[in-house]
Amino acid sequence: MTDQTESHVTIPVDGVRLDGELLVPDEAPGLVAFAHGSGSSRHSPRNRYVAEGLQEGGSATLLMDLLSDEEERVDVIDRRHRFDINLLAGRLEAAMDGLADDPEVGSLPLGLFGASTGAAAALVAAARRPDEVQAVVSRGGRPDLAGDALEGVRCATLLIVGGEDRPVICMNEEAAARMPVDAELRIVPGATHLFEEPGALEQVVEHAREWFTRHLAETSG
């Protein structure tokens, strides 16, 4: 197994401190930061599963909370923050800035992995930071919530949707058509929105690992 280092990181932003877990395999070709979906956190079992798959492919990963504990408590009641895409994108950018001087990952090509509403936040951050974000992967995402930022996305973008998640397929098709890059849509047959069916999440990992390995390795090379 590849040697790797794991550390806890804290990102100060907007008067709060956000917690994250940074895992860096030796000779990682790139770093993938995760943007979690509605009502989720760095403890999301699905995103942790994907992160482990990316680590096995050699990529460094950052699993970070985009909301503070207090913000999460409020969000459970009124869902105030989970659809605030600008807020979530800003938190991602803060994480990018916070790691920019890190000796292990500061110089690595950067990818973003977004799930559900987190996919919109990832795309907004990518549009705002076209020179920093090299690739985006969306799992069951709501890229439509990125709005006009879609037209500013310049990086390689992969949209993964379950074959039974028909409304979200349409949203992803329409969002892909608005991006100036050739965004690729891949359908996981038989999968619903959360990819809970046997083998579905494994396919997500395979698609994401291939995408990040290709596009981040090209950049580092």
Q: Could you describe the 3D structure shown?
A:
This protein is an alpha/beta fold and 221 residues long. Helices cover 38% and strands 25% of the residues. The chain contains 6 helices and 8 strands; from the N terminus they run E-E-E-H-E-H-H-E-H-E-E-H-E-H. Strands 1-2-4-3-5-6-7-8 form an 8-stranded mixed β-sheet, sandwiched between helices. Strand 7 (156-162), helix 5 and strand 8 form a beta-alpha-beta unit. The model has no long low-confidence stretch (mean pLDDT 91).
Topology:
Blueprint: E1 4-13, E2 16-25, E3 31-35, H1 45-56, E4 60-64, H2 69-78, H3 85-99, E5 110-115, H4 117-128, E6 133-139, E7 156-162, H5 166-178, E8 184-188, H6 200-220
Helix pairs in contact: 1-6, 3-4
- The mean pLDDT is 91
Overall CATH class = Alpha Beta
Number of helices: 6
String of helices and strands? EEEHEHHEHEEHEH
Strand order of the largest sheet: 1-2-4-3-5-6-7-8
What CATH calls the topology is Rossmann fold
Q: What is the number of independent domains?
A: 1
| Proportion of strand residues | 15-25%
